[in-house]
Design goal:
Layout (H helix, E strand, L loop, with lengths): L1 E5 L5 H4 L6 E3 L8 E4 L15 E4 L9 H6 L3 E3 L6 H17 L1 H10 L6 H8 L12 E5 L3 H12 L3 E5 L5 H5 L6 E3 L2 H7 L2 E4 L13 H6 L4 E5 L8 H10 L2 E6 L4 H4 L4 E3 L8 H21 L20 E8 L4 H9 L2 E9 L2 E8 L5 H8 L4 E6 L2
Parallel strand pairs: 1-2, 1-3, 3-4, 4-5, 6-7, 6-9, 7-8, 9-10, 10-11, 11-12
Antiparallel strand pairs: 13-15, 13-16, 14-15
Length: 383
């Protein structure tokens, strides 16, 4: 019986995917699987028996990826499962920034006691006049699942769309509308766009990527939308850009104390994936990933270990090994576990994952010998 601990409420439609071989536990220390949305895990003690952490969403900055990798805990996320929900909120943010919707709605609330509001609003509305997006230029930074959907939606609304992604490949390009342009120079986005929307993960290399140098290149009155993570934008530089008029509006789904108190900011409380559909899709995808890993050893959409897929095991045995990529474990493994039928291995960063089907069941002493190898952090007999 595998025990699952939900660190946040997970949609029932996803939890229903787990069979009777799994049961929920309220005790994190007993869990083999942790399901999480926004709960911060960095200061948590990770149980020795924990095999997988599944993030029902895309961002994983609330999970200690390196710490998990060091313990052989595979961390999954659900890229694309909430993409439509985020895309729709980006479009809402775009309209809020251009049509002064928030200020106009606030005026109605403030003047609701006015019996003649239907007349006075005709005089007041000029203060909330906005602009249209048709024909305007928008730059999309990051063309993953969300960025691609945003690019295509803006293109369909008549905007001139240019996308940038340093990892753009043919498969990603194929998901873009034919009229969406791309560039291999992010500075083209900064220089030429009326609107800039950010859709990249929060990593050391992307923190404060939109800062003073970027703002200096932007058109006066540009609108910046950030529905990815707050740390991608240099808050101090943004404050100066808003004060100077270089940026007209900053629309973000990730406010912090500083940005929440800035003039010119339209902030939402991380609503991007807060739809019934997104929560269901993320829960379903996370549960399926976990089951395939627990039952078959296969890895799909892990952020700290490489992908691996041998399907459902039909061989006599299957063994999974998490180890240091530099340890040379793969070359030595066959001599310990015996003759293999199929082996798949790969690396991600400093870490390697090996999944091997064997012609005979792997003996206990062989498992112990593999576990004792330098660089090995976890060994699991799947079958």
């Amino acid at each position: 019986m595998y025990k699952i601990n939900c660190l946040n409420p997970i949609a029932a439609i996803g939890m229903d995917i787990f069979t009777d071989a799994y049961e929920k536990t309220e005790n994190f220390a007993d869990a083999q699987v942790a399901m999480v949305r926004s709960a911060v895990m960095h200061d948590m003690d990770l149980p020795e028996g924990l095999l997988a952490v599944a993030r029902a969403g895309a961002g994983v900055n609330n999970i200690p990826l390196d710490k998990c990798a060091e313990k052989g805990i595979v961390v999954f996320n659900t890229p694309g499962a909430n993409a439509n929900g985020v895309k729709e909120l980006v479009l809402a943010g775009l309209f809020m920034a251009t049509r002064n919707v928030v200020a106009g709605a606030n005026w109605v609330t403030e003047n609701k006691a006015d019996e003649n509001i239907s007349k006075t609003m005709e005089k007041a509305k000029k203060a909330f006049a906005g602009t249209e997006i048709l024909g305007k230029k928008i730059g999309v930074i990051g063309l993953g699942a969300i960025g691609a959907m945003v690019a295509n939606a803006c293109d369909a609304l008549g905007m001139a769309v240019t996308g940038y992604d340093p990892f753009l490949n043919d498969a990603m390009r194929a998901k873009l509308a034919g009229t969406v342009a791309t560039t291999d120079d992010i500075n083209d986005i900064y220089k030429n766009s009326d609107f800039i929307t950010i859709h990249v993960p929060a990593m050391d290399s992307t923190k404060k990527m939109v800062g003073k140098a970027a703002f200096e290149q932007m058109k006066d009155g540009a609108v910046v939308l950030n529905f990815a993570r707050d740390v991608l934008v240099d808050d101090d530089a943004m404050e100066e850009a808003l004060k100077s008029g270089k940026v007209a509006k900053y629309v973000t789904d990730f406010p912090n104390y500083k940005t929440a108190n800035m003039d010119g900011v339209i902030a939402m409380p991380h609503l991007g994936a807060s739809t019934e559909e997104s929560e269901d899709n993320c829960a379903i995808m996370a549960a399926k990933e976990v089951r395939d890993f627990i039952e078959n050893g296969n890895i799909k959409n892990s952020v700290n270990y490489p992908a691996a897929d041998l399907g459902v095991c039909t061989a006599a045995g299957r063994i999974a090994v998490c180890c240091k990529a530099s340890a040379g474990v793969a070359e030595k493994l066959a001599a310990i576990i015996g003759e293999t039928e199929k082996v798949v291995s790969g690396t991600k960063g400093d870490w390697m994952y090996i999944l091997a089907d064997t012609k005979a069941a792997v003996a206990d002493d062989a498992v112990q010998a593999v576990a004792a190898m330098d660089g090995v952090v976890k060994v699991r007999v799947i079958k």
